[in-house]
Amino acid sequence: MTRSSPEPGFRARCPAGFTLVEVLVAAAISVFILAGVLTANLQIIRSGIRIAQYAEMDSQVRRALDSLGRDLKAARAIQWHGESDITLTVPVAGGTTAQVTYAWTAASGAFFRVAGASSATAMGRLELVRGIAALPDGGAGLSFSRYDRAGLPVTTDAATKLITVTLTVTRSAPTAADTSQRPVSATFALRSKSST
């Protein structure tokens, strides 16, 4: 058996490392994987922000409708100042009554409650829902509608027995591309108001 020895000047090839092409291919694949991970992470963060916005919006709307509903059900009288501005006369401790106004203004973009018969009063104003913009056609972002006992539209305070509130709440954030938007409508009966 004869052994052949390598020729002088010829070295056996042993794998000593990666070639430049292999390193470049691995780097390119790593860049794509990293880009995918970062994109997914960004989408998760944006989803979290949208969920938080929606939860905040939903909580505000729920509390506002509870407050409005409580006062409307107990109201003994109503004064209509406009489609986004009403004053209720509600009972308070000691058998007396007080007036509270619920209103929305385009300037503040908020639905608020204030003690007294005027929505212009700033002192003691409680913002119930923020982020109610005017409608695209320029209409009110929050509107009240009034109806009689049979559900027919009315134009006088005395005939009003049902109130419907309609609003569209919007939330957006600089880090989230989409906005959260939710149209809301609720109808309340004025149980304590006497029809005259």
Describe, in plain words, how this protein is organized in 3D:
The longest helix has 55 residues. The strands form two sheets. A five-stranded antiparallel sheet has the order 1-2-3-4-5, with helices on one face. The chain has a three-stranded antiparallel sheet with strand order 6-7-8, with helices on one face. With 196 residues, it is an alpha+beta fold. It contains one helix and eight strands, in the order αββββββββ. It is 28% helix and 30% strand.
Main beta sheet: strand number and arrangement? 5 strands, antiparallel
Number of helices: 1
Q: Radius of gyration, Cα only, in angstroms?
A: 33 Å
Q: Extract low-pLDDT stretches.
A: none
Going by helix content, strand content and strand pairing, the class is alpha+beta
Instruction: List how many beta strands DSSP finds.
Output: 8
What is the distance, rounded to the nearest whole angstrom, between the alpha carbons of the first and last residues?
125 Å
Q: What sequence of helices (H) and strands (E) makes up the elements?
A: HEEEEEEEE
Shape: rod-shaped
Beta-strand portion reads 25-35%
| Residues in helices, as a percent range | 25-40%
Strand line-up across the major sheet: 1-2-3-4-5
Q: What is the typical, i.e. mean, pLDDT? A: 85
